[in-house]
Amino acid sequence: NAGVMQNPRHLVRRRGQEARLRCSPMKGHSHVYWYRQLPEEGLKFMVYLQKENIIDESGMPKERFSAEFPKEGPSILRIQQVVRGDSAAYFCASSPVETVGTGYGYTFGSGTRLTVV
Amino acid sequence: GESVGLHLPTLSVQEGDNSIINCAYSNSASDYFIWYKQESGKGPQFIIDIRSNMDKRQGQRVTVLLNKTVKHLSLQIAATQPGDSAVYFCAENMPNAGKSTFGDGTTLTVKP
User: Fold this and answer.
1) Residue A42: its chain B contacts at CB < 8 A?
2) Contact (CB<8Å) A43/B44
């Protein structure tokens, strides 16, 4: 059981480019969550997905950001036309359906550190 | 509004001492509270959780206390070790909601 896998670990993009961040949940976990962490701050919720379904995207910026969790393959967080303010660590977590809402059983990946230059 | 905050941004303790990390929350409807540990370059790691109908929960070397009257949460670490040095976050969850609201973190430094 490899845990939650995120890649790439580090991503550098120029302003205006697209960033694609990938997250493979733990085996048996059907729920995926994306969080953003600015330096020396806590994690801010972005979006919560099940397979082929967005459950809660209340933390997603209205423009340039999108997320998906297809039937096959990893969850993808896409940021279009990146700006310097998008520079942050992006963490993905997964959980089994039984522990949704508790935090118990949530497993975080090691994150993708996005730097926009 | 909904927010979770921490009283002290940094805490320095001597190895072997007990550590207490505090957290204030503002949403009285939150049902679950969780403590995470985050080491440098890594994602948050679940430590312990507590449900709103409990006052205290113990784990291995850790105890979480919940005071709903003053909306206060604390994490006690017994016999703190150098490996406990990290940033500690509290988080709260609304009932049946997938997302967690995190505080800004307390940096714990353990001096040998």
Assistant:
1) 4, 89, 102-105
2) yes
Quick: pLDDT tens for B13-26: 999 999 999 999 87
For chain B, say whether A13 makes contact (Cβ under 8 Å).
no
Task: Tell me the three state secondary structure of residue A110.
Answer: coil
Here the tokens at position B85 are 């040095």
Q: Read off the amino acid at residue A67.
A: A
- Residue B64, by phi and psi: left (phi above 0), alpha (psi -120 to 50) or beta? beta
| Selection from B74, B7, B34 nearest residue A101 by Cα | B34
Burial class (CB in 10 A: 0-12, 13-18, 19+), A55: middle
Residues of chain B with pLDDT under 70: 1-8
